[in-house]
Amino acid sequence: MDELESVSGGSRTARARLSFLTCDELPAGEVRRPVLASWVRSRRWNLAADRIDLPYIADPDLDLPLARSATPVLRRLHEHLDGQPISVILTERNGLVLRRLTADAQLSRHLDRVHLAPGFSYSERFAGTNGIGTALERGAPMHVFGHEHYAEDLEDLACAGVPIKHPISGKTVGAIDLTCWRKDAGSLLITLAKTTADQIRAALLRDSSAREQELLQEYLLTGRRSSDMVLAVNEDLLLMNANAQQNLDGSDQAAVLAHAADLLGQAGTSALAVELPSGRRVRITCRPVPDGGRGAGAVIQVTQTPGHSLTSVSANRPPPRAVLPGIVGRSAPWLATSREVDNAYRAGQWVVLSGEPGAGKVALARAAHQQNNPAGSFHLFDVALFDVAEAPDHFADDLEAELTDDTVQALVIRHAERLGPIRLDELVGALLSGRERRPSNPPWVALTLTTGGANEADLSELLTLFPTTIDVPPLRHHIDDVRELVPFFLSQLSHGDLSCSPEAMHQLLRSAWPGNTAELHQVMKHIVQHRRRTGVIVLADLPADLQATSRRRLSQLEALERDAIVRSLVDNNGNRRDAARSLGMSRATIYRKIHDYGIR
Ligand SMILES: Nc1ncnc2c1ncn2[C@@H]1O[C@H](COP(=O)(O)OP(=O)(O)OP(=O)(O)O)[C@@H](O)[C@H]1O
């Protein structure tokens, strides 16, 4: 596509958008790939394409370190723009607009009309393809011009968004966006947005270093005075001396941090005797480090106490912690899967993540990357973007470009089961040549396969390149995690005070969730969009089909058994006697279980 078309988001893009929305066609070659991928995501989230319809999320918190450090940078830029119709916008990492500076009254009124204003979220999940949300979703700078926007209401605008990463933790803390009229847009917009993001990062570093210095001083002093295990933490940092690194494994570290968080709720230095998950008995002393306003963090000292009584402390043992950031669920099967994915990432081992639709395959891969290489770049290559594409076809070129790009540290190839034989050959070729061309710095590659969605093509050659396959369990096999997923999704979606009543939760725990966690997410989203953003979700708020679920709730074990029976029946062409035999069950038992589980 030529530069002019890309910059204007013009008539060819408008036609491509229309055919995407009306005929379900993926106009590869007509539209830039990141835009097309974002359109597909926007459609998957059931967003309206004909209008922008955003909820007011919350009053922006301008006391956040990001807002405080960025404000002088934004003001300077605003002054330099000298009345030009360009709006300078700062958002939180979830797309919530914190500040908007616009000198031009007409542009300002238009932005109010499309809710691009403080308190509204321009996350892709609410607003569809746009400079802010799509940049945050991809973790990379993104300009979106004119008809490239998913929502028609945004077609007169052009925006260039850049995620802002914290200079110390490497985590994305927000985004900067420049928005102007589409007719005024040029490729310099993104350059200016990138420079502004760099200036905000420098300001964050300047402002945070004073706090970090305080914390570091206190940590070093404590380490010098004692031979204990010493840790220092704040929201961006975790420091640990060699003693702590050698003696506290992952779950002990998590337990120490959880106890320290509790202790920090008390004024001044406080201490607690506990038994850690490894069985080690210790005394944890937690000392807040002051630094003017918000505090610089806390220094934690962990002392071994062999003689300490166990009785008072066992009750304090914290529940197991999630293994990966942003991944919710502490049931044994889910933790085990999270650990496997994390280990494969650490070992640089290419993996296949296999499971039912929406089970969380990509989410696990993304979280493992986030945990081990937060500053590195993570790419998602969705095969679904190509399999119905007419022409021209960039599949092999695009894939090879991803695999040979030195800056890509992790690549997930999604929905590999949809590939036909020719595409499979191309994929194997691209993987082999990518590995050859980056021998010292190969990317971590994960392939997701949706069970039940396999085509006729033979995957065996492809699978020889992936030594490990990890089965991601369906949600009904770790159904207890619904208790945590529901509040997690509600806080993500509503940003308000929305909770779930015990009756509604009970009902959610009884569903079989054939669409897995993705389906649960959709249900929560539907509820949030159709009711007030505060209060309690009751039974009547649930979609009708969920209210009607009348079967009793199955335990994890029962869910596994039911699935094994279904699989065996399918393998034996519905013959109950053969199915019972291959499961080692009597015929009477299988008849009874088919009836009890309601298998048809
Ligand atoms: N344990 C979890 N904690 C938090 N969010 C989760 C978890 N599991 C899944 N999700 C969320 O659920 C949705 C679906 O997950 P994801 O896209 O990873 O599924 P998938 O198995 O890759 O789906 P598919 O194969 O159909 O493409 C995403 O929004 C993801 O962030």
TrEMBL record:
It holds the Pfam family GAF. The keyword Ribonucleoprotein does not apply. It comes from the Bacteria. It comes from Kribbella alba. PROSITE patterns: SIGMA54_INTERACT_4. Keywords: ATP-binding, DNA-binding, Nucleotide-binding, Transcription, Transcription regulation. Residues 327-529 form the Sigma-54 factor interaction domain. This is Helix-turn-helix domain-containing protein. The keyword Metal-binding does not apply. InterPro entries: AAA_lid_NorR, GAF, GAF-like_dom_sf, Homeodomain-like_sf, HTH_Fis, P-loop_NTPase, Sigma_54_int. PANTHER family: SIGMA FACTOR (PTHR32071:SF122), TRANSCRIPTIONAL REGULATORY PROTEIN (PTHR32071).
